[in-house]
Design brief:
The protein has 187 residues and is mostly beta strands. The chain is built from two helices and eleven strands; from the N terminus they run αββββαβββββββ.
């Protein structure tokens, strides 16, 4: 993964100065589950980046390099990169527009998840996202109900049996408040 590509994705989505309600990733995990008739595989990454920019509501963007996901089997991980066209589309990104302000809610909220993956975009409407504020950190958790066919990804087969189309991606991301940089105040 080219870090400059991921930085460009985040910068283009949120080209504003930090306000008191803006947040950045403090840490997190994305975990996918692939199900085959003979076994279940989990893979994940801790290399999550993102930003939350707030006004009346918040715009949330979280992204990860596709090549940062690991399942414990390097051959399977390499095959996954080929199938999802990771060389041409090196990041997976999830955007939530009009997310309620962190101080306005606690618990579960229904949102639309706008996912970019494998060179395509798909919106999952009405996904449940849980939030909580703990010791100054905002924790956001949920599941992207990802289906491979939504992104034109051909399901790989093992012993002539393809994996299931459903490939849910759980996310658990902690956000900390951004601090304003000199010269950005008032933007």
């Amino acid at each position: 993964m080219r870090p400059s590509f991921l930085a460009a994705v985040l910068a283009s989505a949120f080209a504003t100065g930090a306000s008191a309600q803006d947040w950045e990733v403090d840490g997190g995990t994305l975990t996918y589950t692939v199900t085959h008739t003979l076994h279940v595989v989990h893979g994940g990454t801790h290399d999550v980046r993102g930003s939350v920019v707030c006004g009346r509501t918040c715009d949330v963007l979280a992204a990860a390099a596709v090549d940062s996901f690991a399942s414990g089997d390097s051959n399977r991980d390499l095959h996954m990169l080929q199938i999802v066209r990771g060389a041409a589309h090196p990041a997976v990104a999830v955007q939530i527009v009009e997310f309620p302000l962190p101080s306005d809610h606690a618990g579960a909220t229904l949102v639309d998840l706008d996912v970019s993956f494998a060179g395509k975009r798909h919106v999952y409407k009405g996904a449940s996202v849980r939030t909580e504020l703990v010791k100054g950190l905002l924790r956001v958790q949920g599941v992207v109900p990802l289906r491979l066919t939504d992104f034109g990804v051909e399901r790989p087969a093992f012993l002539a049996m393809p994996i299931k189309d459903e490939c849910p991606v759980e996310f658990d991301i902690r956000w900390r408040r951004k601090t304003a940089r000199p010269g950005n105040a008032g933007r």
